[in-house]
Design brief:
single chain; alpha/beta; Adenylosuccinate Synthetase, Chain A, domain 3; Adenylosuccinate Synthetase, subunit A, domain 2; binds guanosine-5'-diphosphate; binds 6-O-phosphoryl inosine monophosphate; binds magnesium ion
């Protein structure tokens, strides 16, 4: 019943896509509320692996309607490609199955060029963005001259707007960043074609969601990115340009807090990060390779969007408790537990230290986090392969203890433990109501 949220509790890539796919079973609407095609959500259904960047992962279930909310930034080219990927995979996506908010903003090639130019200018201080134009698109939005999806409905005015937008961006690209200008005519023509194809998908998303909630149907808000990448609450400036946290789901969809039912925080059983920025529990050497994988398995830690090897480390419970506070998780879902099988021991960061002083929580949130040293607890590992575990009792005691310790320190119950990428590879500890 009403609004459930699936929120990344770390730096993204926690396995939100596969959790959304699970919860979408009971949802009538699955809605993205922030970010754009910087996301990469993998859903494994039998032999099919869907790698989705923009459309809600919940569309992989045939009964759902997908929504791209007002908080999303849309690259129309990616969107059309993904609709095709789903259709080629036997999942049909007619306009009745996907609704685009009129207030969502569009990403253009000018935004992508600016993203690249800004990263280049930052030099050694670069953020390591996905180069998808996300930051510049949100900059245009907050500067109040972004292009909104609804503008695609008036072809002539839209063409003029895109042209003027590219020309304005060109002045920045050439004047400030010494980068190449784009052909505004060509971009406008390209976007006119997208507008023609996407028009039927644009409609009132606020009303659609409100009516579903009033009818008692479940609406699932699909988080992209993660709490530590949140513009306000993350490890600024090494963050994305939106609010991928639970509060962001409300503004990003236009829903009041009264409708919120469950807020599920998705966390990997260890921790990863792509791009720059602090990572106190980061590992190097043999253990890093062990957790990352070498790239031969589809789930090994290489970015879905950029192919970059992900940085890996031990699970940081101080940061997870911080994420718990920012989002108000009702439960945690722990993913990739199977990857920890076979380790002699597993470390958990349970506190921090600085100049001889111990901290249970960082005194300034994640600000200057790198000045603190993690304090670890070492727990015994387990040798058993847990990929076929389906209930709590199937898990080795050492694994159960690992989960219990996480619950204790973070102060929230673990509701799901995933033990492989497949739909069924899930230990369910609670059933959502
Ligand atoms: P998202 O961005 O949060 O949706 O996560 P990604 O899809 O980018 O990254 C998660 C990766 O881990 C994907 O390749 C998933 O198929 C894979 N995955 C998710 N859960 C599990 C699990 O329990 N075990 C294993 N081995 N892989 C998993
Ligand atoms: P999903 O939804 C992991 C990171 C980038 C970079 C920073 C800013 O798959 O979890 P941006 O292009 O957004 O301006 O980049 O944010 N980033 C992600 N990291 N998973 C993601 O999405 C990410 N989306 C953005 O690597 O550090
Ligand atoms: Mg991802």
């Amino acid at each position: 019943m009403p609004l459930d949220m699936v929120i990344g509790a770390q730096w993204g890539d926690e396995g939100k896509g596969r959790m959304v796919d699970l919860f979408a079973e009971k949802a009538s609407i699955v809605a993205r509320f922030s970010g754009g095609d910087n996301a990469g959500h993998t859903v494994t259904v039998g032999s099919q692996i869907f790698k989705l960047h923009l459309v809600p992962s919940g569309l992989a279930r045939a009964h759902t309607i997908g929504v791209l909310g007002n908080g999303v930034v849309i690259n129309p080219n990616t969107l059309l490609k993904e609709i095709k990927i789903l259709e080629d995979g036997g999942v049909s996506v007619p306009p009745e199955r996907l609704r685009i908010s009129p207030a969502a903003h569009l990403i253009t090639p000018a935004h992508r060029a600016l993203d690249a130019a800004q990263e280049k200018m930052r030099g050694k201080d670069s953020i390591g963005t996905t180069l998808r134009g996300i930051g510049p698109a949100y900059m245009d939005k907050t500067a109040r001259h972004g292009i909104r999806a609804a503008e695609m409905l008036d072809e002539e005015a839209f063409t003029d707007r895109v042209k003027a937008h590219v020309e304005a961006a060109n002045r920045m690209l050439t004047g400030v960043y010494h980068a190449e200008a784009l052909d505004s005519q060509l971009v406008a023509a390209e976007y006119l074609e997208y507008a023609r194809q996407l028009k039927p998908f644009i409609g009132d998303t606020v009303g659609l969601i409100a009516e579903a909630l009033q009818a008692g149907e479940t609406v699932l808000a699909e988080g992209a990115q993660g709490t530590l990448l949140d513009l306000d609450h993350g490890t600024y400036p090494f963050v994305t340009s939106s609010n991928p946290t639970a509060p962001g789901a409300l503004t990003g969809l236009g829903v009041g807090p009264v409708w919120v039912n469950q807020v599920i925080g998705v966390a990997k059983a260890f921790q990863t990060r792509v791009g720059e920025g602090g990572f106190p529990t980061e590992l190097e050497g043999e253990m890093a390779v062990r957790l990352r994988g070498t790239g031969e398995n589809p789930w090994d830690e290489y970015g879905t969007t950029t192919g970059r090897p992900r940085r890996v480390g031990w699970l940081d419970l101080v940061l997870l408790r911080y994420a718990m506070r920012v989002n108000g998780f009702t439960h945690l879902a722990l993913t990739k537990m199977d990857i920890l099988s076979g380790l002699d021991s597993i470390k958990l960061c349970v506190g921090y230290q600085r100049e001889g002083v111990s901290y249970q929580d960082l005194p300034l949130g994640v600000y200057q986090m790198e000045l603190y040293q993690p304090v670890y607890e070492e727990l015994p590992g387990w040798v058993e392969d847990i990929q076929s575990a389906r209930v709590w009792q199937d898990l080795p005691v050492a694994c159960q203890n690992y989960v219990r310790r996480i619950e204790e320190v973070v102060g929230v119950r673990v509701g799901w433990i995933s033990v492989g990428p497949e739909r069924e590879q899930m230990v369910r500890l609670v059933d959502l109501e």
